[in-house]
Amino acid sequence: MSKTRIMVVDDEMIIRESLAGWLERDGYQVDTADSGEKALEMLAAKPYDIMLVDIKMEGMSGLELLKIVNDRELDTAVVMITAYGSISSAIEAMKCGAVEYLLKPFDPEEIGLLIEKIIDRRDQEKENAYLRSEVKQRTRFESMIGQSQAMQQVFDLINDVAPTDSTVLITGETGTGKGLAAKAIHTCGRRSRGPFVAVNCGAIPEHLMESELFGHQKGAFTDARQTKKGRLEIADGGTLFLDEIGEISMRMQIDLLRVLEDRVFYRVGGTQPMEADFRVVAATNSDLKEAIAQGTFREDLFYRLNVISLTMPPLRTRKEDIPLLCDHFLQRFSQETNKPIQKISRPAMDEMMLYDWPGNIRELENAIERAVVVGKTLQVMPEDLPIACIPQHDQPSDHSLKSIEKYHIEKVLVENDWNISTSARILGIDRSTLYSKIKRYQLQAPA
After folding, report:
1. Which range marks the domain in which residue 268 is found?
2. Residues 44 and 107 placed together within one structural domain of the fold
3. Cβ-contact 288, 248 below 8 angstroms
């Protein structure tokens, strides 16, 4: 409060001194001016938060002073002082930009309340303006980084959905940060103090998935030497994140749908119904609608999961975020490796801006880590980046079906950073078939 500067402008000395005395006793910094011209001189010398201006003064009137203050777009709240019989003048002043008007004779308590109200209102307006600026300019949200419009929309949607318990389906290519988005939804929600339990549906073999999700009783199968809680039980009170949801089998889809509908399940080998209260967030890099058309994904499960849809944009569509991400990864890996690499050279940054990053942020992160490890100078150079030496696969020398198939499979694998699930989906085959073809053609992922 003591930092609030107030100017009292009135050509009557007794009014100036009375107002200044009352306001100074309330802890404000107060200056006085006996004319509009003097007030403008004082405004040119230093800013004021609030001005109390008499409407009728000799020379420049209070309304004229108000209009000049508004024309100069000064961040000053103007309160007009008027006699009781001149309400019409006060209303005109409000139309011209005054925030309030004060009637003579004055009540010191009323003046104090009026000034407090104006200060509170200004503080709220400044806070709102700051928050709007932060939303517009923010580049970091939880563990995600991005200044692009696409990422700002992601941040806003997470802010909207996090406080609810609605099921969220996150879609997007491999490496776009779907897991980070899921964690942000959990962290910003009312279940943030509960567990965040992630299940990679594509990494758990089908015969183990049931036990992983639902748990098992001791003796339920050969290796069940003791009772084990499943991920659903562990997620009680928190968030269950089902990553690569498109990879689960049709049988597990039926079981999962039943759990999502009533939150009741049975451990493997158990007869006692179990209950758990958790929020579900799922993610996939697959086209689930296409999977539904092909009969590999249940339509009813899709609609149960797709209550709120969030799509993570690929890095190639938000290249303005690349410098921010590079700086973040450079700082991190420089500290981890204890190497004094200070920046990314302009030629190296140009290379990265031109590259399409099929592996998205994950590929960019790996590229920066590699550049820090192999770099010999204080800045990352183009030759330090793996993207500068990505092998170009020549067309097969012969036109045999075997050569063409090998070439095409290797090309798709490289374009998708050797992600088997994504490559198999693009090729239109299942993962086991792709693995057998990789073995047959002796294809190897780059080190």
Report:
1. 145-311
2. yes
3. no
